[in-house]
Design a protein that fits this description.
By secondary structure, the chain is mostly helical. The chain has 7 helices and 2 strands.
Length: 166
């Protein structure tokens, strides 16, 4: 039986529910953190390709400044996804690059943060072959988002941070 492309765990719904109550900026931080944890899986094999790293850096810049240019966000995301396609059968590197591509897309649509986290967990599954390690990663993701929400004082799901459009 062929393994599913994306990992599934019992924490998928609790993470999605927690994300639904998180503000846009917090989801950006969380998506960048999730993608960055697996970025070495890509960079160790493809050190000359900085497209996934640049996507994460662009997301961090957006979180910091709120400056938003759709053309830039789209370009960084598409470039990271192109890097993922170019690794062909390297599931680990592909999932790590896709995590970065989904992460930067969070600047446009907050729910892309969930894609970044799931691709990160998929990269861990493909690297380790261990669902125990995947479950530990998803537990970290949940706790980390919970901590970020507490740090940023998010207690009301309606409290959304709005980026400035240029």
């Amino acid at each position: 039986m062929k393994k599913p492309k994306l990992v599934k765990t019992n924490l998928d719904k609790p993470i999605a529910d927690l994300a639904a109550g998180s503000d846009h900026r917090t989801l950006g931080i969380w998506a960048a953190d999730c993608a960055e944890r697996v970025l070495p899986y890509f960079e160790e094999k493809y050190p000359e390709d900085d497209r996934p790293r640049k996507a994460i850096e662009a997301l961090r810049a957006w979180v910091e400044t709120g400056d938003f240019r759709m053309e830039d966000i789209r370009s960084f995301s598409l470039n990271a996804h192109a890097a993922a396609r170019e690794v062909e059968d390297d599931d680990v590197a592909r999932s790590a690059a896709r995590a970065a591509g989904q992460a930067i897309a969070t600047a446009h649509v907050p729910s892309h943060a969930l894609g970044a986290a799931i691709y990160a967990a998929s990269a861990i599954r493909d690297f380790t072959g261990s669902m125990d390690k995947v479950n530990k990663e998803r537990e970290w993701q949940y706790r980390h988002l919970l901590d970020l929400n507490e740090t940023h004082g998010i207690t009301n799901p309606k409290k959304l941070w709005r980026p400035r459009k240029k």
